[in-house]
Amino acid sequence: MATLILEVQDKKLKFFKDLIRHFSFVTIRDSDPCEDTDEQVIENIRAGVKEMRLVEQGKMKSTPFKEFLKELDEL
Q: What is the residue extent of each domain of the chain?
C-alpha cells in the first residue's frame, strides 16, 4: 500500500474526508490528531463561554483555581 500526504484547506477538510471515505481502498489517518482544527477551537471557546455564563447565573459550579492548575499540571 502506498502513502499519499495531502494538504487540504480547513474549511474543505470535512467535505474532502466525507468524499474519499466512500472509496473502500482508502484509509484515512490524521497526521496530527492532537492538533485541533479551527472549527474545534471555535467550538471549544463557545462551550467555555456557555459554561462561564452558567457559573455566573449560579446554575453551574466553578472549579477552584488551585484544582484547575493541578489538572493542567497532570496533562
A: 36-75
